[in-house]
Amino acid sequence: MVSLRALAPSLTRITVAGAVGAALHVGQGDCDLIDANAVQYSRAVLAQTDVEGEVICCEGPKDNAPSFEFREKVGTGGGPKVEFIIDPVDGTTAASKGRKDAISALACAPAGCFQVLPDDGYYFKIATDYHSIGKISMDMSIEEIVRTVAREKGVPVSNFTVIMLERDRHAEMLKTLRKLGVRIILIPDGDIAGAVVSCIPESGVDLLLGAGAGPEATIAATAVKCLGGTMLVKVWREKDDSARMERLKKEGVNIDKTYSQDELAKGKELVFAASGVTKGELLDGVRLIPEGAVVHSICMRLPSGTIEKSETTLRFKGHPVYEQFAVKKH
After folding, report:
1. Among 1, 21, 111, 265, which is least packed by CB within 10 angstroms?
2. Which residues pair with 85 in a beta bridge?
3. Same domain, 254 and 132
4. Tens of pLDDT, residue by residue, the chain (330 residues)
5. Is beta strand 207-212 parallel, antiparallel or unpaired with respect to 183-187?
6. Same domain, 107 and 75
7. How many domains does the chain have?
């Protein structure tokens, strides 16, 4: 049986395809076109991948955006039985406006390993590296979380960097962080990349904070677990939210529970892959060249903990996937 380790390069090709499909329409102001193209390219590469795969979640359906179908069967059927959570473009709005930090990302594991939080409202997320495992909790204030992570990492608060989505719902948290005097990176979209860079020492980012969507939490948790970091996720409550709480309960979500990376991404055989669509904190963006494109990617996996960064140069003409779609547009 082929292992996920052996499949990892093939899984990176899926996000490369999604990134290229999206990048062909960066800045054109059409979110649906970007999503549709990314899904089309990703699906074509998945069809050639030697797995018996199933997409158990894909970001998009809530907003009626183009996406993979729920429980869509993918792969040749000739390899290991695996499940995918796919976000063909995390940061679709950013990509449509030509802004930074859009990526194509996926998580893959043997069937039954993922818990996906419903795409219904927001979930508060904390992510950082291994120094703070078991040291932080959702019961702590924002100031306590920051000071604890800074202390465990040995970083002065004045040199500490928090990454977070730029959203109105984070206004009070932003005031607290600015009062503390930490450095803040506000990203327009895409908190998967934010969670990942918080666990990479050389990134210069120490902590992800903020409320974002559910499916992305499990993709990010997969990467965080592969990097040996810690991620905490809990239902984000807003005013007059009782109807949503009831919906989440019916979906099996414990609305009072803090979910960890080990609960969202179970087991020790996991792969996370991502490719940059536009330049960002984690990856450089797709660079179109006369014959094709140059794409930057990252792939990480357990049990080895291996992290691979790659630069892929694609030639569209004559390629079994890209010639179908890209040559006539490029």
Report:
1. 1
2. 57, 107
3. yes
4. 457 778 888 899 999 999 999 999 999 999 999 999 999 999 999 999 999 999 998 765 555 667 888 889 999 998 889 999 999 999 999 999 999 999 999 999 999 999 999 999 999 999 999 999 999 999 999 999 999 999 999 999 999 999 999 999 999 999 999 999 999 999 998 899 999 999 998 999 999 999 999 999 999 999 999 999 999 999 999 877 899 999 999 999 999 999 999 999 999 999 999 999 999 999 999 999 999 999 999 999 999 999 999 999 999 998 988 887 765 555
5. unpaired
6. yes
7. 2
